[in-house]
Amino acid sequence: MSEGMAADLPQIDDERMARLHGRLVERAARSADLDVAYRVIDSPLGRLVLAATPRGLVRVGFADVEGEERVLAEVAREVSPKVLRSPGRLDKAAQQVEEYLAGRRSGFEIALDLSLLGGFRGEVVTALPRIPYGSTASYGELAAIVERPRAVRAVGTACATNPLPLLLPCHRVVRADGSPGRYRGGDSAKVALLEMESRGGSAADR
Amino acid sequence: MADTPFESVVTEHGRHVLTLCMAMLGSDEAEDAWSETFLAALRAWPDLPDDLDPRAWLTVVARRKCLDLLRARARRAVPTDRQPEVGVPGPEPGDEGVWAHVAVLPTKQRQVVTYRYLGGLSYAQIATLTGGTEAAARRAAADGLKTLRAKEIR
């Protein structure tokens, strides 16, 4: 009986669900109930999760390394669980990230929401854009930039947990001996970014 | 539900809720009820306890939103001196098929059949939603199915 009943369920196609989802996003945004909108884009560095609050981009995640679900769970826990997929709200961020990774852009013009950053970590990563495109600084040099020359280890931790990689360019911070060091998006991604910037090319053609 | 992004709730339960709403309202108004259900759920989401069963809870919210729409429909109806129409749609030809017949079952039977076969809830879960015992829910489902069978729907 239950089998037969289930077989009679009206068919609901993907298009209809997508339309309802889109309508929900619009209504939630209008009534200020959409705390975090996100989309996932393909890039030369693998799939990237872009998540934004109404104030600005709040998290960039490397889906293939960190896991899409883990990135979104972190955003839910630390920012708000009122999270919906909403590609249209991230058009500008997606476009600029794509341009940057294609070597056609050296900086970003996007509002950032720094709510995943507090205290010293915030000081460190917001100083990162002071390292110019195409150059690098050591963890010690970055510690000097933020006027805490002895806090090299804390600077390393701040870079390692940067919630907005690419936009706040932690990949430009390297080891004292000049070797690239670790990266949230995978060590090879860091190498690719540094090579791309040093020749002003694209992260795709290594 | 502080660790669960609401998107995953829509993905996992969106179709289920729409099917429920279609059974109670018919296809068109079902979309309004779906939107109302998920908007209300989104607003409540951060404050819900972590051990909540989202499917059972959404079923309750959806049912409430459907009843709101049915009441609004009844209020809009032109007043006559005859017995007012019961606020559920009659069987209609088209996609709804058997669920249009479910919609005109007596209330308790309709709820139980809907929760059981559309909602996929256990009789224990159904009993907590409708009140009464698990055995009573089981009986109501059996009675509802007998009615449908008598109509030669199954």
Automatic annotation (TrEMBL), chain A:
One of its GO terms (molecular function) is methylated-DNA-[protein]-cysteine S-methyltransferase activity. It catalyses: a 4-O-methyl-thymidine in DNA + L-cysteinyl-[protein] = a thymidine in DNA + S-methyl-L-cysteinyl-[protein]; a 6-O-methyl-2'-deoxyguanosine in DNA + L-cysteinyl-[protein] = S-methyl-L-cysteinyl-[protein] + a 2'-deoxyguanosine in DNA. Its EC number is 2.1.1.63. Pfam families: DNA_binding_1 (PF01035), Methyltransf_1N (PF02870). One of its GO terms (biological process) is methylation. Residues 120-198 form the Methylated-DNA-[protein]-cysteine S-methyltransferase DNA binding domain. It is an enzyme of class 2 (transferase). Residues 37-114 form the Methylguanine DNA methyltransferase ribonuclease-like domain. The keyword Methyltransferase applies. This is methylated-DNA--[protein]-cysteine S-methyltransferase.
TrEMBL record, chain B:
InterPro entries: RNA_pol_sigma-70-like, RNA_pol_sigma70_r2, RNA_pol_sigma70_r4_t2, RNA_pol_sigma_r2, RNA_pol_sigma_r3/r4-like, WH-like_DNA-bd_sf. Residues 10-76 form the RNA polymerase sigma-70 region domain. One of its GO terms (cellular component) is DNA-directed RNA polymerase complex. GO terms for biological process: DNA-templated transcription initiation. Keywords: DNA-binding, DNA-directed RNA polymerase, Sigma factor, Transcription, Transcription regulation. GO terms for molecular function: DNA binding; sigma factor activity. Residues 103-148 form the RNA polymerase sigma factor 70 region 4 type domain. Signal peptide: none annotated. Belongs to the sigma-70 factor family. ECF subfamily. This is DNA-directed RNA polymerase specialized sigma24 family protein. It comes from Marihabitans asiaticum. The lineage of its organism: Bacteria, Bacillati, Actinomycetota, Actinomycetes, Micrococcales.
